[in-house]
Design a protein that fits this description.
Number of strands: 9
Helix content: 40-55%
Structural class: alpha+beta
Strand order of the largest sheet: 3-2-1-6-5-4
Radius of gyration: 21 Å
Order of helices and strands: HEEEHHEEEEEEH
Oligomer: single chain
Shape: elongated
Strand content: 25-35%
Distance between the termini: 66 Å
Number of domains: 1
Largest sheet: 6 strands, antiparallel
Length: 186
């Protein structure tokens, strides 16, 4: 059983891919930069939830929030962090109901997309690894464009939060100085 520390490894993730392990069980490969592909014996949906816990985000809320932004109700890219925006892509044909076909590719790790065989596409990552998915190039490129819109919004939200914290820090610092001056006057 593979245990992956997402808090330490999230920046190295290229994608999450649903696979069947050697016993035929539904599992997930976490593709890391450099070619390492640890196998986690859980559905991709479960692995995604565990990764979301690291960032204290609610996946359903992310889908609603960013789905409205891009005008999409299903297969919405998920922004866990400005550097971890996950794009859902169809990676396999499931053998049974509820086994999952969708994997997630990390937006900023994609180097390019090229046509594959039978109207499929090949996603090329920055480290040279490639993933064949069951969607066409146009569909994948559209999802990447939507992820870029979400990435801009996510960066903007993060910048606003940082500015608000800095302003709060300035106010608290000014109050502390004022209190110290009052205290010294007694």
């Amino acid at each position: 059983m593979t245990i992956l520390n997402f808090e330490q490894e999230w920046q190295n993730i290229n994608c999450l891919v649903p696979v069947y392990d050697h016993l035929g069980a539904n599992s997930t490969e976490v593709w890391l930069e450099g070619g390492n592909k640890p196998l986690i014996p859980h559905k991709t949906k479960t692995v995604l939830k565990n990764l979301a816990k690291v960032f204290a985000v609610d996946i359903a809320q992310l889908k609603r929030k960013y789905g409205v932004l891009i005008g999409k109700k299903v297969s919405t890219p998920l922004a866990f962090h400005p550097q971890l925006i996950l794009i859902p892509v169809k990676c396999r044909e499931p053998l049974a109901k509820d086994e999952g076909a969708v994997g997630y590719i990390v937006h900023n790790k994609i180097k390019g997309v090229s046509p594959g065989e039978n109207k499929r596409s090949v996603i090329i990552f920055g480290d040279g690894s490639i993933l064949e998915c069951l969607q066409g190039v146009t569909s994948v490129n559209l999802a990447i464009a939507q992820a870029e819109i979400i990435a801009r919004e996510c960066r903007k939200n993060l910048q606003t939060a940082v500015q608000e914290k800095e302003e709060l820090y300035r106010i608290i610092s000014a109050l502390m100085v004022a209190l110290e001056k009052r205290k010294a006057g007694y």
